[in-house]
Amino acid sequence: THMNSCNFLVHSASGSAKQSDVEILEAKLESLIFEVSTLKKKHRNDIKQVSAKHEADLKEIKIKHDQEVRQLREQIAFLGIYTNLPPTFLQTLEQLTLNPAVIVALEIPNFTRKLNEAICSNSYGAIESDPFYTSHGYRMKISVYLNEGPCGYTGYMGVYFYLMQSDYDDSLKWPFDKPVTFIVVDQQNDESQIESFEECVIPNGEKALNKPSVESNEGLGFGQFMLHSALGTRQYVRNHTVYIAVAIEP
Asked: What are phi and psi of 125, to 5 degrees?
């Protein structure tokens, strides 16, 4: 009986020791899990702070760049370098590129293929420019619908401009009231033969001209801008590429 009691005490002591070890390990594991969780939160916060600072720095650089570009354009216009240039529809692509009142907003490569694909699939074949700034500080983009067939304008290409939100909006005049001219550039080698195709939007108080309250206003332009059949009458398409410029009055 005494021997059995001793065995029981030994087993009990051994069991207690094992239980204690398990509890210590569990506590240590919980501590490690907590440390990992805390470290993850710290990393997430660090990443957010770095990202926010990076975005702020990029935004500041972009604003500074845009201001410098605007100032240069204004100086060029003030100096009157382009007062002797012909009207925009007679200007070469190079002249349009240098003209401070003109933005060559879209270069459309593989134009013929894209137009044919849009017609065959009865889709718009929409192409959108990157956002750009006018010399006045307005931010906008343009969209070209290669095929306006789906909305009933069979055989036509459409073009629209969209006013977009920017950091300068509070200092600009609203509603937007500048005539906007869309130009399909004639890429003739002989400058004396150049005759680009252009149409002008005359602002008339449309809602799309108000100060943007969202990222982009609705578009304003022409659903029947240019006949597909007119594209082959001059060098509007050269090396399968079309250039569409936007001229905005000072």
From this structure: 60, 45
